[in-house]
């Protein structure tokens, strides 16, 4: 199986082929996600929420992201692996951003990085691309700025923010981003962004785009109680796990497990 490259992802847009992306944070899940045929795997800082149980993505550290990314890389043969740069690892100076970007590339083996923001981080992105690091942008609802936004509502509903978002997409494409994620923006704005730039636009809660991304725990029904309108839930893993674990408890307590075959 040939490894998916950033060039292949870019060619998919040119060929009108949709890009399927999901998150992963650990080895066994990443191996399944990869074998199921996803084109890109995101080691998202949503690990802060779904792995660690935090309210936001703010607290996850660079070391923690590196641990998740290393685990995912070991499970993937085909998909392009993208790692989120966590809050604080690229906002201080361009030099600091580049140092942290290099560290993730050296220590994890991921194929690309993702950063939240537009024009304000384009210098840092330019430096990374110059250094040979593929970068994916992220615009719209950027969860690392949640305290600025004051909530997880739809972004860029107003003209000014929508205009700025299209401009930011152009700046990111110009800075060398190979793709851009747009999160929770109106579907008609996503269409405009996808038409404004030649790089693939990957949507989440953003309607049709050049591809889609979801958090794997959310779409598998493992993140109980999280049911936003944009999410399609493909399984009830929480129920599967609850039933299996309940049966295990029953079997241990009754003495049924382990049986004569399940011992040495
Ligand atoms: O961290 C994440 O899971 C993400 C996607 C939702 C785009 O950034
Ligand atoms: Na993220």
TrEMBL record:
GO molecular function: 3-methyl-2-oxobutanoate hydroxymethyltransferase activity; magnesium ion binding; methyltransferase activity
Keywords per UniProt: Cytoplasm, Magnesium, Metal-binding, Methyltransferase, Pantothenate biosynthesis, Transferase
Metal-binding listed as a keyword: yes
Annotated positions binding Mg(2+): 45, 84, 116
Cellular component terms per the entry's GO annotation: cytoplasm
Biological pathway: Cofactor biosynthesis; (R)-pantothenate biosynthesis; (R)-pantoate from 3-methyl-2-oxobutanoate: step 1/2
Gene Ontology BP terms: methylation; pantothenate biosynthetic process
Cofactor note: Binds 1 Mg(2+) ion per subunit.
Lineage: Bacteria, Pseudomonadati, Bacteroidota, Bacteroidia, Bacteroidales
Cofactor: Mg(2+)
Protein's name in the database: 3-methyl-2-oxobutanoate hydroxymethyltransferase
HAMAP family for this protein: PanB
Description of how the protein assembles with itself and partners: Homodecamer; pentamer of dimers.
Enzyme superclass (EC): transferase
Binding site for 3-methyl-2-oxobutanoate: 45-46, 84, 114
Compartments (UniProt record): Cytoplasm
Xref: InterPro entries: Pantoate_hydroxy_MeTrfase, Pyrv/PenolPyrv_kinase-like_dom, Pyrv_kinase-like_dom_sf
Main location: cytoplasm
Reactions it catalyzes: (6R)-5,10-methylene-5,6,7,8-tetrahydrofolate + 3-methyl-2-oxobutanoate + H2O = 2-dehydropantoate + (6S)-5,6,7,8-tetrahydrofolate
Species per Swiss-Prot/TrEMBL record: Alloprevotella rava F0323
Pfam families in the cross-refs: Pantoate_transf
Similarity comment: family membership: Belongs to the PanB family.
Active site per database record: 183
Function: Catalyzes the reversible reaction in which hydroxymethyl group from 5,10-methylenetetrahydrofolate is transferred onto alpha-ketoisovalerate to form ketopantoate.
């Amino acid at each position: 199986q040939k490894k998916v490259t950033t060039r292949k992802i870019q060619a998919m847009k040119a060929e009108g082929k949709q890009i399927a992306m999901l998150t992963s944070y650990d080895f066994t899940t990443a191996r399944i996600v990869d074998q199921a045929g996803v084109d890109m795997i995101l080691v998202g800082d949503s690990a802060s929420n779904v792995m660690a149980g935090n309210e936001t993505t703010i607290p996850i550290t660079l070391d923690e992201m590196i641990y998740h990314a290393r685990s995912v890389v070991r499970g993937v043969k085909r998909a392009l692996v993208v790692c989120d740069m966590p809050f604080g690892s690229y906002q201080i100076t361009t030099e600091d951003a580049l140092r942290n970007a290099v560290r993730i590339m050296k220590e994890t083996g991921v194929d690309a990085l993702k950063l939240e923001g537009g024009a304000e981080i384009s210098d840092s992105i330019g430096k990374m691309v110059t250094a040979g690091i593929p970068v994916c942008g992220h615009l719209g609802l950027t969860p690392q700025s949640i305290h600025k936004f004051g909530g997880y509502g739809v972004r860029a509903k107003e003209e000014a923010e929508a205009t700025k978002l299209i401009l930011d997409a152009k700046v990111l494409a110009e800075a060398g981003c190979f793709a851009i994620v747009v999160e929770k923006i109106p579907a008609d704005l996503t269409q405009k962004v996808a038409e404004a730039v030649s790089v693939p636009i990957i949507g989440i809660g953003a309607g049709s785009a050049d591809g889609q991304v979801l958090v794997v725990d959310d779409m598998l029904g493992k993140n109980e109680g999280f049911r936003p309108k944009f999410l399609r839930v493909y399984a009830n893993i929480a129920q599967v796990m609850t039933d299996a674990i309940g049966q295990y408890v029953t079997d241990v307590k009754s003495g049924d497990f382990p049986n004569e075959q399940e011992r040495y």
